Amino acid sequence: MGDIKKLGFIGLGVMGEPMCRNLAVKQGATVLAYDTQSAPLDRLGQAIVVAKSVGQVMREADIVFLSLPSGEVVAKICEQADGLLENCRAGQIVVDLSTSPVELTRELYAKFKAKGVLLMDAPVARTRAAAEAGTLSIMVGGLEHEFTQILPYLSTFATEITLCGPVGSGQVVKILNNMVLFETVAALSEARAIAQKAGVDPKKLFETLALGSADSFALRNHGLKAIIPGDFPERAFSVEYAAKDLRYALDLAEHTQVDAAGARNVRRLFELAVARGDGDLYHPVISRVLEAKV
């Protein structure tokens, strides 16, 4: 990859901005960045070169990273006039760091391949703090020799980078990771509501569960740090965003003919949370849905 002279980064949101910063600071190549909002571009300052459009990023960069809020947005910037497909050239690589539907990822892969461009899926996991520290976890879909080409760049903002299988496999693993997390948070919310009604301090419950077989990352973080203190900030991973990822999981379950009853229950809780006006809050706020029934 010694011939890589310019990198592109599209999408400087909650996760994209710190990832782009790490990429720019730790790599010697120029980073051409684009976002619809000027604030993150201003914050990145001299670390990046500001692009006027996604088309410009695609025309000038050798590798283009996408960090976008949904697969729908990914599809739009790829297929729109003056978008990525219209401006790509043979030999480029597009790395989708977003969480996108599996079938969409594979469809876009075929469209880019027809133009001699490689698309790889590399959705990221963990928090904004991890993105800032460069300690994200990334699930990659692609072939081994393709993986080795992008690994040095992913390593600027991630410490755990896993090749999960051919294109689309990274999305499968990320989507299922989130599905399991959401179901665990729902179980914790149910346990909290039951304990409170049964006369047991929910904080004592969670602290004790953390000492036994019910311990989990979700318990120690989403449970003890969000559900117990009732801390559900905006600009975290909201109910609306979580519902989007859960929809991708349920679509995948339907495609594979698996009855994902647990995921459907979480979808119901998400819908109830949105109806309460909590859609913009950190997704463990679903505990309030059950709390209201205590």
Commentary on this structure:
The chain has 294 residues and is of the alpha/beta class. The chain is 52% helix and 14% strand. It has a six-stranded parallel beta sheet, with helices on both faces. The longest helix has 29 residues, at 169-197. The protein is elongated, with a radius of gyration of 20 Å. The chain starts with 5 loop residues before the first strand and ends with a helix. The mean pLDDT is 96.
Keywords:
alpha/beta, three-stranded mixed beta sheet, six-stranded parallel beta sheet, 14% strand, 14 helices, elongated
Tell me the number of strands. Answer: 9
Helical/strand content category: alpha/beta
Order of helices and strands: EHEHEHEHHEHEEHEHEHHHHHH
Count of runs of 4 or more consecutive helical residues: 14
Strands side by side in the biggest sheet: 3-2-1-4-5-6
* Major beta-sheet overview: 6 strands, parallel
The percent range for strand residues is 5-15%
Ends apart, CA distance between termini:
59 Å
Overall mean pLDDT: 96
Low confidence ranges: none
Please give the radius of gyration in angstroms: 20 Å
Helix content, binned percent: 40-55%
Overall geometry: elongated
